[in-house]
Design goal:
Keywords: Endoplasmic reticulum, Membrane, Signal, Transmembrane, Transmembrane helix. The protein is α+β, with helices and mostly antiparallel strands and 216 residues long. The chain has two domains: 97 residues, Jelly Rolls (Sandwich), CATH 2.60.120.680; 58 residues. Strand 4 and strand 5 form a beta hairpin. The protein is elongated.
Length: 216
């Protein structure tokens, strides 16, 4: 009985160790890209490694950005102009440092917030010897299923967090526009009111002047 519980405890420890380390492969970052600026990132990749680049513009301007991906020799693997979001998967054909850049050089007065996720390689198996036949195979399968489900939950959380940030930015922008529009309407109403008062007073002033001249 003690041996059984010790085995379960061991598998739980291995599960959490792989759970925490399995997500360390890749880079996820949200950064601010100023107007008329370009930001590049670099990653060392070995030949035959499968990689995926995903990005999305969260706030700013028309929610679009230029993206460019180059291999170790400077060959362009991916290039898109004014994209709000996209995903690109490739397999490294060469060893070396790969570069991907985001550009906002087409904008002269609006900065943007960009989020990207660059996954390099695939997650290692949760249990290195999954194919062996043991009494705990069913438990291992359950752990793997939970692991995959938690990864899906993280992906959904990231997606909805970005959507929430984008929605909040648009709501704040709309609120600012409504505020300026209200101020403009109030100013126009004030100018029209003053103009009407001045115009009416001028009518009465002209009538009074005419009456005085007739009486004399």
């Amino acid at each position: 009985m003690c041996s059984y519980h010790g085995t379960i405890r061991l598998f739980v420890q291995v599960f959490w160790a792989h759970l925490l380390c399995g997500w360390a492969f890749g880079s996820e970052l949200t950064f601010e890209l100023p107007d008329n600026a370009k930001q590049c990132f670099y990653e060392d990749i070995t030949v035959g490694t499968k990689c995926t680049l995903e990005f999305q513009v969260v706030t700013g301007g028309h929610y679009d950005v230029d993206c460019r991906l180059e291999d170790a020799d400077g060959t362009v693997l991916y290039k898109e102009m004014k994209k709000q979001y996209d995903s690109f998967t490739f397999t490294a054909a060469k060893n070396g440092t790969y570069k991907f850049c985001f550009s906002n050089e087409f904008s002269t007065f609006t900065h943007e917030t960009v989020c990207f996720d660059f996954q390099v390689g695939e997650d290692p198996p949760l249990f290195p010897n999954e194919n062996r036949v043991t009494a705990l195979t069913q438990m291992e399968s359950a752990c793997v299923s939970i692991h995959e489900a938690l990864k899906s939950v993280i992906d959904y959380q990231t997606h909805f967090r970005l959507r929430e940030g984008q929605g909040r930015s648009r709501a704040e922008d709309l609120n600012t526009r409504v505020a300026f529009w209200s101020i403009g309407e109030a100013f126009i109403l004030l100018v029209v009111s003053i103009s009407q008062v001045v115009l009416l007073r001028s009518f009465f002033s002209d009538r009074k002047t005419t009456t005085t001249r007739v009486g004399s």
